[in-house]
Amino acid sequence: MPRSITIIGIIVLLVTGLSILSASCRRTSWGKDLNRVQQSIPDGFPEPYYRYTDNPLSEEGIALGRKLFYEGRLSVDGNFPCASCHEQRGAFGLFEHDRSHGYNNSHTLRNGPPLFNLAWQQYYHWDGEFTTLTDAIAQPINGHLEMADDFTNIIAKLQADVNYRKEFKAVFNTQFIQPRHVLMALSQFLGTFVTANSKYDRVKKGQAVFTAEEQQGYTLFLARCNTCHTEPLFTDGSFRNTGLPVDPLLNDYGRLHITRMREDSLKFKVPSLRNVAVSSNYMHDGRFLTMVQALNHYRSNVQQSATLDPLLNNGIPMNDTELLSIVAFLRTLTDSSFITNPALSRP
């Protein structure tokens, strides 16, 4: 056999062997030695936009993400974990506070939105700046007004912890923690934040019945609110100007800052109304303390402007009785099992 053919054969064998080894490592990283978890998709929900195909869910990955969500070392001074602005009792939103606060007594422009049903979102944050969950997670970690750290420092802190090294090794099959691993683990944990077990959901399944006031509120809601806050997610995911006057101290014009298009001035993402009764304050800057105050805005305080949503040209007419009926219905959207689920609490 010619020597050149022998060399070629050896090279082929080496390449083949390396390919098999690489494939074996990938299998180990993404499921062979992990307890895989199926993504939760409640009955009646549409197909989610994000299916975790690039970040397969596992019990170990979710547990690591849970630990990181409550980990102060992801912030520069150790005092501001993700959970500091996203509290479980507030449906993982900013609980009874107007705007997010962070390192060095700083405040952001906006209210920390509740975190749930995230796989059904195409855009993240109030202005839709991010289109992937991992990018949305990275921003507050690096943001100087929130957690104010950088991944070089964060990785050094995590790498120094023998338990974290073991947990990252188990999930990602490498002894060297990388920023993307931190974000992927957090994304896996956030993927378990699925809420679909409110009284409303039980009524839809024939397991409960609305009171007369709740039914009246639901009827009014369908007629006057459902276009933007569309069932079953209670948001259509769009960006709209709802006629809020600009706070002169914040000077926040919403999606305009992202697209630089005049037609997006004063537009913010329509939030889901699930768990709305426990997730005050309300609106993008948390200016309203109660649901009644928020509804009163739509009833009589909508400010006209060039980009005002046409559906609100005349506000949303309702008398006092109708307003209170709508509030009664909105309370049926509270998922108590979600906001008390021990699997989502601090480990």
TrEMBL record:
One of its GO terms (molecular function) is peroxidase activity. Its main location: periplasm. It is found in: Periplasm. SUPFAM superfamilies: Cytochrome c. Keywords: Heme, Iron, Metal-binding, Oxidoreductase, Periplasm, Peroxidase, Signal. Residues 201-334 form the Cytochrome c domain. Transmembrane segments: none annotated. Signal peptide: none annotated. This is Cytochrome-c peroxidase.
